[in-house]
Predict the structure.
Amino acid sequence: MSAKRIILAVVVLGVLGFVLIQFVPGYARTNPEVTYQINWSSPETEALMRRACYDCHSNETVWPWYSYIAPVSWLVVGDTNEGRAKLNFSTGRGELEARELIEQIDRGSMPPSKYLITHPDANLTAEEKALLIQGIQATSFGRRRGD
């Protein structure tokens, strides 16, 4: 087999592998139905939450273009699924309580630094963090839609 044929075969297999890797099961980008409505304490609190938290902690994720290209898509989908499992504003389910949420925002661990690299608008100033924490403390967490 000639060197040209070997190179062509490697390129074809590489392209085919790259295309097939995009469809690995379990990494679907989904936005299930919103079944829970939070009565935020103010429009400002809701806007800050949406800006800094909703992509990973709701069913209203905005999927960026790079979330469609493996292997980056696996990281984005995995992080989103993990975030939704811990706290999902769209279902009212999760392990975190308001107190823990406030602690994580105050410590600067939420939103995570790796998220802020591609979402600089989610990087809250100290004043915005203080407003968000006050808003969370004042929020009456809502009800499931249809209740």
Remarks:
- Confidence is low (pLDDT under 50) at residues 143-147.
- Helices lie at 3-21, 43-52, 54-57, 72-86, 98-107, 113-118, 126-138.
- The first strand starts at residue 36 and ends at 39.
- DSSP finds seven helices and four strands in the chain.
